[in-house]
Amino acid sequence: MEQSDNYNSRRKFLKSSVMGSALLGISSFPSLAESIGGAATSSLKMPSGQKTAIDMSAPPIPTVRVGFIGVGNRGWYAVRRYTFLEGVEIKAICDINAARIDITQKMLKEKGLNDVVSYTGGPDVWKKLVERNDLDLIYITTPWLLHTPMAVYSMNCGKHAALEVPAAVTIEQCWDLVNTSEKTRRHCTMLENCCYDEFEMATLNMAQQGVFGEIYHGEGAYIHRLNELCFGKKEDGTGKDYYEDQWLLKYNTMHTGSTYPTHGIGPIAQIMNVNRGDKFEFLTSTSSNQYGITKYAQEKYGIDSPQAKQKYMLGDINTTVIKTHKGKTMMIQHDVTSPRPYSRIHLISGTKGIAQKWPVQGIALEPDYHHYLKKEEMDELLVKYQHPQIKKFGETFREISIKDEGSHGIMDYLMEFRLIYCLRNGLPIDIDVYDAASWSSIIELSEKSVLSESKKIDIPDFTRGEWNKRQQLEFAEKS
């Protein structure tokens, strides 16, 4: 199908894709075709019995008792990270794949943790873990469509919820998270580790110190070829298989747009004070046609294979542009099929200069704005504006991450530490439910824009008018 096909034709294609996906055994996988008529919205009027979760705190938890749902791939590494943290107790793990449970239990026992309870079995077995009365935090690392239902159930059972990215895949799910957190007074955070990267945090500090002047534009991305992961098993060195049920491929068969935006949007949204002095207003989104997934399937399975004949919705590259209430812009790109180096871009542009991390790290400032700083000058500036959180804990987490070969370095551990620190001290969390909902809303809204020939799509204000109550991101500290 051509990208210029009209909206109704794309709807028809989506529906035919659902039926055609039976070739891959995925006919029951949901698509936007089921709700293409319009994004679910919620009134600015807050439902009775709720109150804002902005700067919400909860009673301190001296030792945070954690249950993990999903221990394949990201989940296994998350459990291992928690074995290095103080003030936590790993109480239970759950996965429908018993082999993953065995691998995780083996790792836990090697670390002297012999009393962690396991849950495995049918698709609803995770509820038994959530319903335990000795858990404070439910850590969710399952396929995307399960994140919101599991988080909502967890909060309704009195637990805080931490979700792998994205937190939600529809606007309706975003509102479910917001409403449930407001109603239950339980935290709902998205585990966006890229917000804790050293360079991203340095640019956050620089921005808050006025180094870039008035920031009016930001760029982020998720450019990371994943064809190999999508199409099958890949050993990761621990005996586990990545995406062995091909759930990511199934999603890419049914959907287009910016399907994984939070790595790119999270850090620049924090720097540009989204939900803290500004808010998303609307977006437009355009995707290229799809070439790369089909090419990979032809080469791997043959031109006449079911995989090669399958229609895949996901365009090879998506570009989404967001405009904020204050007239600032953000560009987010998504590309998981092209043979190109990994990039999150992370570019910040202001009246006094710019910074970017990918593909080449550089900072350029007035008056010599035509040239990037020399490496030694940039390094000196990054040391000067090293974020206070990195300054406090960076070396400790660097040493730990060296032992944990599967980590992404400091950012994974600082993310986990900050969540546990805030829960232990009864403080507001860094990435709250409004951030989780706003950043995740790009998924459905970008798809709707793509399918309507890049039509402008309004972005809901999940704070219900409270976006100007705060003026910038603050990392809460105990007094």
Topology:
Layout: H1 7-20, E1 64-69, H2 74-82, E2 88-94, H3 98-110, E3 117-119, H4 126-130, E4 137-140, H5 144-156, E5 160-163, H6 171-184, E6 188-190, H7 198-208, E7 215-223, H8 227-230, H9 247-254, H10 262-271, E8 280-287, H11 292-301, H12 306-309, E9 318-324, E10 329-335, E11 347-350, E12 353-356, E13 362-365, H13 375-384, H14 388-403, H15 410-425, H16 433-451, E14 457-458
CATH class of the largest domain: Alpha Beta
* Residue-averaged pLDDT: 90
Tell me the fraction of residues in β-strands, as a range. Answer: 15-25%
CATH superfamily of the largest domain: Dihydrodipicolinate Reductase, domain 2
In N-to-C order, the SSE pattern is: HEHEHEHEHEHEHEHHHEHHEEEEEHHHHE
What's the number of extended β-strand segments? 14
Please state the second-level CATH architecture of the largest domain. 2-Layer Sandwich
Structural class: alpha/beta
How would you explain this protein's 3D organization?
It is a single chain. This protein is α/β, with parallel strands linked by helices and about 475 residues long. The protein has two domains: about 65-190, Rossmann fold (3-Layer(aba) Sandwich), CATH 3.40.50; about 195-385 and about 430-460, Dihydrodipicolinate Reductase, domain 2, CATH 3.30.360.10. It has 16 helices and 14 strands. It has helices spanning about 5-20, 75-80, 100-110, 125-130, 145-155, 170-185, 200-210, 225-230, 245-255, 260-270, 290-300, 305-310, 375-385, 390-405, 410-425, 435-450; strands at about 65-70, 90-95, 115-120, 135-140, 160-165, 190, 215-225, 280-285, 320-325, 330-335, 345-350, 355, 360-365, 455-460. Strands 13-12-11-7-10-9-8-14 form an eight-stranded mixed β-sheet. The protein has a six-stranded parallel β-sheet with strand order 3-2-1-4-5-6, with helices on both faces. α6 packs antiparallel against α16 (about 435-450) and α14 packs across α15 (about 410-425). The longest helix has 19 residues, at about 435-450. It is globular.
